[in-house]
Amino acid sequence: MEWLTLTIDGREVSALKGSTVLEACRVNNIPIPTLCYDKALTPAGACRLCIVQIEGMRNLPPSCVTQVTQGMKVETQNEKVRNARKTILELLVANHPLDCMTCQKLGDCSLAEYAYEYGVKGQEYKGEKRQLPIDDDNPYILRDLNKCILCGKCIATCEAVTERNVIGFAYRGFQAKVSTFMDTDLKDSSCVYCNRCVAICPVGALMDKNMIGKGRAWELKKEEVTCTFCDSGCEFVINSKNGKVLGVTAKSASNGRPLCLKGRIGSDFRYNSERTDKPFINRDGEFVQVTWSEFLGLGNIVEKINSLTK
Amino acid sequence: MAENQRILVCAGTGCASSGAHKIIDVLQEEIIRQGIQDRVSVVSTGCHGFCEQGPTLIIEPQQTLYTQVKPEDVPEIVAQDLVGGKLVERLLYIDPLTKKPATTFANSNFFAKQVRVVLQNCGFIDPEKIQDYVDNAGYKGLTNALKMSPDEVVEEVKKAGLRGRGGAGFPTGLKWSFCRNSPGNKKYIICNADEGDPGAFMDRGVLEGDPHSVIEGMLIGAYAIGADEGYVYCRAEYPLAIKHMEIAIAQAEQAGYLGENIMNSGFNFRLKIRAGAGAFVCGEETALMASIEGRRGMPNVRPPFPAQSGLWGKPTNINNVETWSSIPHILKNGAEWYTQYGTEKSKGTKIFALTGKINNTGLVEVPMGTTLRDILFDIGGGIQNGKAFKAVQIGGPSGGCLPDEMLDLQVDYDTLTKAGAMVGSGGLVVMDETTCMVDIARFFLDFSQKESCGKCTPCREGNKRMWDILDRITKGEGKLEDLDTLENLALVIKETSLCGLGQNSPNPVLATLKYFRSEFEAHIVDHKCPAHVCTALLTYSIDAEKCKGCGLCAKNCPVGCITGEKKAPHQIDEAACIKCGTCLEKCKFDAVIRL
Hints:
Low-confidence stretches of chain B: none
CATH architecture of the largest domain in chain B: 3-Layer(aba) Sandwich
CATH topology of the largest domain in chain B: Rossmann fold
Strand order of the largest sheet of chain B: 12-11-15-13-14
Mean pLDDT of chain A: 90
Number of strands of chain B: 19
Helix content of chain B: 25-40%
Largest sheet of chain A: 4 strands, mixed
Largest sheet of chain B: 5 strands, mixed
Distance between the termini of chain A: 63 Å
Order of helices and strands of chain A: EEHEEHHEHEEHEEEEHEEHH
Oligomer: heterodimer
Helix content of chain A: 10-25%
CATH class of the largest domain in chain B: Alpha Beta
């Protein structure tokens, strides 16, 4: 491990050789806005929000893909950088439906967070906005591509699952969008609703349908657990409000295989009125309620132990 | 009249579309009919470069150039010239400047002032015959290269000072050395033939007319770099270029120039063609490689650079058609010979495609450092219909418009970039006084924003918003603050975009704002389009004094908005007028006023 010294905003900091400027900033608590960056994915350098100014480099390089070098001089907050970031945010907001009051993502939306930070109100560029139909024909994911900022993280996380690759970029220019094969709705695609894409979406373009209308991001208590439905051991998040579990969401793209439907939807059983806390045993084709000790074969455990000591 | 003659008929895409194949058929029939087939041969060649005057044919050895030939002219050419030995004067090229006919192609200004290095075979050999190429010192550069060490070849190209002809002008030898020095035993080279700039067709000309020069250049490059496999990535819109390249590759394989143990040197090289799918952005190196790999053509961030990790993760070197095609000449004649052409930092010759409102539309090759005035007025023959020159767009949608005060600029990579344009691939789109510069900026931006791949925010969203603003200005709905907004957007897009498309797409806007700001202001403040192009800002009326009441305007008006009694002045209903300008064209008394 080799450490390099560089100057960020006039402050001398150390960073590991091979790390990026963004990583160096994050390690040193220097805030850099990002929309397309995720540490589990190969950086795409697409949103251009993490741009910084580096002495001797032309243009404003994106910090997420620029590696640190010894003696590098980085500026992350000067006027030029902030103006460029603000312009990029204005451009994104100009093509985004401003229905934040009713958007499920509010409170957890990266675009809203940075728009607030940079004072972006969406007044700068008035013109055409996308008018794409909302994909609502499946029971699991609400897909509103009018809110999509084309960061590409959903595509990258979907590609990371072997033989999945359900979505990709399609069309060009202003018409560019994330699309399934032949641009169908999700229900006609090979999507299995693992919801990795939903978990990683920084805006409200992909939403868990079972969470919609049930609570605001700041009202939810999130608990990370390992699923016990099968032996794969997927990690996910249990979202609860006022002590009641509202839904299970995929945790992050990095943790091996994604959450299957069983794990995610299974949480609903908890509040099923027909749910019982006693076990049943199949006797001659009929389910008969028994005690736990009988079910587990522990009924005569004391006699069994005693017989062993003789 | 017993000497052998060759008739070189241009059958490039341009001339083929105006009947060159028919001319070749009729020529062959006529020659047989006149019984001169033993001494006269017809050669179907690539582009002569003189597209405006096509179909063209050249008779050798006399060097007679006949222009705008039609199939029905052929019997006269055969009887009068080939048999009778007398020029068919009405088919000779009349120089628009001197008004004199050019008796040979070499004494026309168009050809005489060019220096044809890369284009020297184009139009003079049959591109479907490898022997024609070999007879013209073809594969001599390769022979020389194989006698040198790969490092010596790289050094020779470095010494020649050749810079990438695809647009950015990166030194070719240096680029080769990066890939050569990159670790790995599998390396690729690629020929970028995804020529997509509106108004650029030099690569098409070379591929169609002299495909072996590209193959030879690639062979030399592959030997120098240590690659054993290459691709020609050609846009699918160039079917003839692809066809000629396929034939050339097959013949080169047959002749032992491609394949295993080439010319007994132990060097192996295979070459394949990949057709593009119509995306402009695939001219960008990383997008091009993604496309070859079968993925969507979208640029990727660098590093890693293609020289480190390119096609299928292997070190890869990409050069443009014209760059590859320059290589055999350097190896054949030496770097020193090559450096006699050009300026201090831009060596050699460059092909430019002349289009727009210029008399001699076509392909021209000149030494770097030639002035725009020489290219446009001496070789290009000046502006069509005696109109005044207004601007020339250099470098396509990534370049900029330069006004007449820049005409004495010596064209090379550095001067053009400094002036706010770029050499780009070498498209020169000429505009006259009837061109609106706001409209032109909007046109080029429309192209860029539609061809943006959509990956990075500034290019995808920013170009669209710039286009929105320009569109509003052309409709008279602009505000003066819009110009500041345009400038800010342009600079942010240039500085933050991922690839060359976004980094250069605002150039046409910045250049027109720099040189033609008053035209923007006229649209915004006075609600007038000085060039009378933006229809929303035009008004048509009839001068009652001049109008004789002939009714011709009313008869031709497509929306019937002109009324009036016979022999009395007519009126235009402005609300109904669609501003098509038909009345203005039809009026014989100059009574229609356009403001």
